[in-house]
Amino acid sequence: MIRVNADRLWSTLERMAQIGGTPAGGVTRLALSDEDKLARNLLRDWALHAGFSCDVDSMGNMFIRRAGKNPTLSPVMTGSHVDSQPLGGNYDGIYGVLAGLELLRTLNDHQVETERDIVLVNWTNEEGARFAPAMLASGVWAGQLSQEFAYARTDSAKITVREALEAIGYRGERPARAFPIHACYELHIEQGPILEDEAVDIGLVRAAMGQRWFTITLDGFAAHAGTTPMHSRRDALTAFAELALKVEAIGYQHAPDGRATIGMAEITPNSRNVVPSRVVCSVEFRHPQREALVAMEAALHQAAESLAARGITAEVERIFDYSPINFDAACLARSEQAVAALGYSAKPMVSGAGHDTCYISKIAPASMIFIPCVKGISHNEAEKILPEWSEKGANVLLHSVLSAAQEP
Predict the structure, then answer these.
(1) Across all residues in the chain, what is the average pLDDT?
(2) Three-class SS string for 111-153?
(3) Average pLDDT over residues 265-286
(4) What CA–CA distance (Å, rounded) separates 293 from 210?
(5) Are 217 and 278 in contact (CB under 8 A)?
(6) Pick from 309, 237, 244: which is nearest to 274 by CA?
């Protein structure tokens, strides 16, 4: 039974981590940044050197293809993303891309011919850190978002996605439109503590939580901090503090599966001696049941409306919504067989994070494979995995993809 070259995989991970590397040992490689361009170029060079083709579509998605014997059959897809969070880790997303590259190289090493082509993909702007929402380009490719919507998204400097794609030379001619896929696999770090805590090698991901993202705008009135009595104030920041606690309470009300987070907030005018007139913040809910997400959103509206008692007007805009999904049983079965043949331990899991494969699952059979990460830490420079975890996950990916690629 063939296995990946674990040392080669680890060395590619270490080399890629130098692009956007931070002093604390993580990476900042935001979507469509100069660092993202360098990482894309390196990935493309590795692919071309190994004899694979590399195409880029109009959303900047990269498709690296190893040809099979029968080009009329739909290919098997694997991959993830190169972009990171600001001050993020070295394995989130990029591990799935480089493990996919390693499986293609391994098939070359062993001169394995597959019936179907195998396509390794790097999806643009999975993180949503520079351009919201997340999973932007896979959403366009899968027909869940329009390209016009995606191109018009802006970063904090008001640069659009289209402008950023053109700036780094990755706005391809090929339309960002799905082609038939026989099966799709994404290998990823768990981003949680369960696998390490339970000493389990592999997570077989059967479902993913739904998510709803909101932008909340709270408007009060700017006033002098010294001359305005407390009872006369319409303080947007203290109203925000009340809202934040209510959002946290919504998460607890839907425990253990509910998640409620405020990750961003901007204060206006942001001066130490002016009562704040405006706060714009994010709110994010996650839950594996759609009914719960509906209830959480209703509670958010109620919490926002209650701020009128403080003289604050609140606008709630939902900017992102996708339902909980279940992954494909046949894809999971191939991974289960691979785990058994390799002698690894595994457990079924639900992903609390969003991933590009959640969109792909809407149009093609798909599933995910998790490996542990140290202490469950992710979206953090302290994010770490062990080389043996990396190897085991790549071996399960290899045999999951190979099994699908040999099917007539």
Answers:
(1) 97
(2) CCCCCCCEEEEECCCCCCCCCCCCCHHHHHHCCCCCHHHHHCC
(3) 98
(4) 8
(5) yes
(6) 237
